[in-house]
Structure formats: structure tokens, C-alpha cells
Amino acid sequence: MGSPELANLYQQVILDHSKRKKGFGLAEGGVAESHQLNPTCGDEITLRLHLADDDTIERISWEGAGCSISMASASLLSELVPGLTRDEARERIALFREMMRSKGAGVEDDEPLGDAAALEGVSRYVARVKCAMLGWVAFEDTLSLSS
Ligand code: ZN
Q1: 95 CA distance to ligand 1 centroid (A)?
Q2: Which of 76, 126, 133, 145 has its CA 20 to 30 A from that of 46?
Q3: Per-residue confidence of the chain (147 residues) as pLDDT tens digits?
Q4: Ligand 1 mean position to 88 CA, how many Å?
Q5: Cα–Cα distance between 91 and 86 in angstroms, integer?
Q6: Distance 50 CA to ligand 1 centre (A)
């Protein structure tokens, strides 16, 4: 990745998460599963939703293959969601989507996104937005499938 443009994209947090993927490996059980494909880049993710007894999100588990951005984004999502209610999770997804559609402008308050806010720079590159959204779309799908 020699170009300054891509060097800018691959910030340290993205690199770390693409190398050491949180939540990677489908866990037993789960209440719903979603498989998502991003044909323009070749990214593929299968994600499972695991709920706690009180219907909050225990965690997500996932597997897949693809570019650093898609893998890092799913990893960052895995770190973010444990303990959230379904409503909180939907709010986080909406905020992340808003950030990804901002064309580099970002959102007013990205604090609810935790380290996933590091992906803001990706929103400048329209072709990569789908990479970053892939895991989040899969997560959103499992929320709908299980409600
Ligand atoms: Zn990709």
C-alpha cells in the first residue's frame, strides 16, 4: 500500500484490528445469523448474534475474508456491542452509517462509536464505504431476524 491515500486509510487502529480480529470465529448457539457479500471488493462476512437472558447483546461472533477495512470494521463492531440493548445497537448502526455517508465530514458526536470512529477517514472513499459497512449490515440483519 504505497500511495499516501491508502496509507492514510490504514491507520494504526485499523491495522491492529485487521491483524487481531475481535469476535472472529463463529461461536456455538446464537439467535440469528447473516451472511453478507460485498462483490465490488470480494469481502464476505457471516455473523451471528448472541443475546443475554435479558435480551441485551451478549456479543457477536463472525467469520469471513476480505480487505483490511472490512475485517477491521467487523472487529471494531465486535468490541462495541456487548451489553447494548437492541435500541442502542440500532442507534450505533445508524450513527455509523451517517458517518460513512459523510464523505469525510464525520458526525457531530462519534463518541458512541468508540474505536470504530477511527474508520471515519474511509468515508472519503466511496468505493470503500461498503467494505466498512459490511459487518454492520450483517449485524443489523441479525437484529431484524431475531426480533
Ligand atoms: Zn473491501
Answers
A1: 20
A2: 126
A3: 445 554 455 578 899 999 999 999 999 999 999 999 999 999 999 999 999 999 999 999 999 999 999 999 999 999 999 999 999 999 999 999 999 999 999 999 999 999 999 999 899 999 999 999 999 999 999 999 998
A4: 26
A5: 9
A6: 25
